[in-house]
Amino acid sequence: MGKTILITGAGSGIGRDAAFALAARGQRVIATTFDEAQATALRAECQTRGQALEIFKLDITLAADREQLRPLALDVLINNAAIGDSGSLAEIDMGRVRRIFEVNLFATLELRG
After folding, report:
1. Where are the domains of the chain?
2. Whole-angstrom Cα distance, residue 11 to residue 42?
């Protein structure tokens, strides 16, 4: 078997597509999603496609969720989880800006450890 690859934010978009593409190439893919609903939907898509992914919920901002990663022997980490906002920076609520930095910067850096 190939490398063990963890992908955060694999519930949709590029993360989901990368997970399936890498699994199709023989890699062991651990695909994580923000919430259990996304994990359930991704499991259903695996059955439909006939592909195997290891899937679990991982909110990268939660230390308890990040602890799930400790026992894993990973070769590659694809830090894909992220959120965004649009509009004038002057009009975006500061709480939302803090949340964006927490997810996109601080929590992402916490995964390296």
Report:
1. 4-110
2. 6
Alpha-carbon gap, residue 56 to 75, rounded angstroms: 18
In Å, the largest CA–CA distance within the chain is 50
Q: Which residue has the tokens 């190939």?
A: 2
Classify domain 4-110 by CATH number: 3.40.50.720
Strand partners of residue 56? 32
* 37/31 Cα distance (integer angstroms): 14
Closest CA to 53 of 81, 82, 27: 27
Is the Cβ–Cβ distance between 43 and 51 less than 8 Å?
Answer: no
pLDDT tens string 44-80: 999 999 999 999 999 999 999 999 999 999 999 999 9
